[in-house]
Write a structure and sequence with these properties.
The complex is a heterodimer.
Chain A: H1 6-20, E1 24-30, H2 37-48, E2 54-58, H3 59-65, H4 90-96, E3 106-118, H5 119-124, H6 131-137, H7 141-148, H8 164-173, H9 190-204, H10 216-223, E4 229-233, H11 236-244, E5 252-255, E6 268-276, H12 283-295, H13 297-307, E7 310-311, H14 335-344, H15 354-369, H16 375-389
Antiparallel strand pairs in A: 2-6, 3-4, 3-5, 3-6, 3-7
Helix pairs in contact in A: 1-13, 8-9, 9-16, 15-16
Chain B: H1 6-13, E1 37-43
The chains are: A alpha+beta, B alpha+beta.
């Protein structure tokens, strides 16, 4: 897997970082997520006091890693990062702050989500294709299914790539996560079954591709024009531009996702954070690095322009480099969507066992799409799988 | 998958811009430019791809 490639992102930042800090040498080592390699390697290092000075923490493992005692508390002198937290996206700041006030990491990037859509396919299907018109067209999930059918070509082109997009988006819009703040599993929350029923309707209407998420077929489908929309974090634009559909300049647009019953269209998908280990023998240099990476304008601009990484640092939201007419999106300033989403989204509750539930749900959502299970059966299957694993 | 080569290579080849904190209400604690040393940074991919687990 070549992307997302945080190690290359860091290495590309070195000339600018060393212009600010010429006497700090940064040795970057990247690990893949396959078989939880990064998480396992980092956890072993934490336990044996043999880790790096600085470690990146992706949002999917933050709940697990923030409980470890080996992180430097950035709320303490001389860092006093609690004064800074109001300038990070509130949900990201909350995620790195433990109930006792310890700040285990600094938020690096967030994943405000939107509906990426193919302008040319919408036009060909007779649908409006300006962002505001797409949002009006997809006023709710029913209209998403009704109007979205027009872009489908059976066995050739689909409205969305994967049913899990619907589940993740609908749950986030309603502020429902796999677990609540008390750690109670939320699969009995009515929103989950409601989302599975929307998946079922979409599958019946032929809207969902048969491709498994992250499979080579799924990746290639974007460049082949087989997928008309995808609901994902802003970072997905980086994949489209540089990996999946680099020749599609001007063909894509971004709108907010279909609205839920409360009118909310906002959701977050993804994000990362950066932390210092207590065992670091050079905390000043480590602090210089992480502070520069997450708050410096040169750093954030480069990461946004090269990798579509959305800053958690909110002062960046008003800069000219994030608010510009992007030719990949036919001149659209997509931050008009993502800034609105970031401001309005309901903070997610993270849990150490999120990945267990997510994996079980992915399986049963595919069962619905393949016509193997009803939504009710799928939900029971997911609950049984989760119960067996927790 | 195709890696992002062009953008990163061009970024790496470009002259290093002058670094400056952004306009902000509170200045982040930032050690001075004379700070020195070698640090190790570990990182994984930004987004966890389920198929990679």
């Amino acid at each position: 897997m070549d992307w997302p490639n945080n190690d290359r992102t860091f290495r590309a930042l070195m000339p600018a970082f060393n212009a600010a800090y010429p006497n700090i040498k940064v040795e970057v080592q990247g690990f893949p997520n396959g078989d939880s390699q990064y998480l396992n390697t980092l956890q072993r290092a934490l336990l044996s006091n043999s880790g790096p000075d600085v470690a990146m923490i992706e949002i999917g493992v933050l709940a697990l890693l923030r409980e470890r005692p080996q992180w430097v508390d950035s709320a303490q002198d001389p860092y006093n990062a609690d004064d800074l937290m109001s300038q990070f996206a509130p949900f990201a700041a909350a995620n790195v702050t433990r109930p006792d006030g310890k700040i285990v990491a600094l938020p690096k990037h967030t994943g405000p989500g939107g509906l990426f859509y193919r302008r040319d396919i919408f036009e060909e299907a007779g649908l409006a294709n300006a962002p505001a018109d797409v949002e009006a067209l997809f006023a709710d999930w029913n209209s998403f299914i009704e109007e979205g059918q027009k872009v489908v070509k059976p066995n050739e082109r689909w409205l969305i790539a994967n049913g899990m997009e619907i589940v993740s988006t609908m749950m986030a819009q309603r502020g429902v996560n796999w677990f609540d703040a008390e750690g109670q599993l939320q699969l009995d929350n009515p929103v989950v079954l409601e989302a599975l029923q929307v998946v079922d309707k979409a599958a019946d209407a032929g809207l969902i591709s048969p491709f498994a998420m992250w499979s080579p077929e799924w990746q290639g489908a974007f460049g082949r024009g087989q997928i008309a929309t995808i609901m994902s974090g802003n970072w997905f634009g980086g994949l489209l531009k540089r990996a999946f559909a680099p020749d599609d300049d001007g063909k894509w647009g971004v709108a907010a996702a279909p609205a839920d019953s409360t009118g909310n269209r906002s959701f977050n998908a993804g994000g990362d954070h950066i932390a210092i280990l207590e065992t670091s023998q050079n905390k000043e240099a480590a602090r210089a690095f992480i502070s520069w990476v997450v708050t410096d304008g040169v750093s954030l601009k480069q990461q946004y322009q090269n990798d579509d990484l959305y800053p958690a640092w909110t002062p960046a939201g008003t800069t000219e480099w994030i608010n510009f007419a992007d030719p990949y999106y036919d001149g659209q300033n997509v931050n008009e969507v993502f800034a609105r989403v970031q401001a309005n989204l309901i903070p997610a509750t993270l849990n150490t066992d999120d990945s267990v539930v997510s994996a079980a749900m992915q399986t049963v959502v595919n069962n619905i799409v393949q016509g193997v299970s009803t939504p009710e059966q799928a939900l029971e299957q997911a609950k049984a799988e989760v119960a067996a694993r927790l | 998958m195709r890696p992002i080569k062009t953008a990163l290579l061009s970024a790496m080849a470009a002259p290093a811009p002058v670094s400056a904190p952004m306009a902000q209400e509170a200045a982040p604690y930032r050690p001075g430019p004379e700070t020195s040393g070698t640090i190790k940074v570990w990182t994984g991919p930004i987004m966890t791809a389920p198929s990679e687990r």
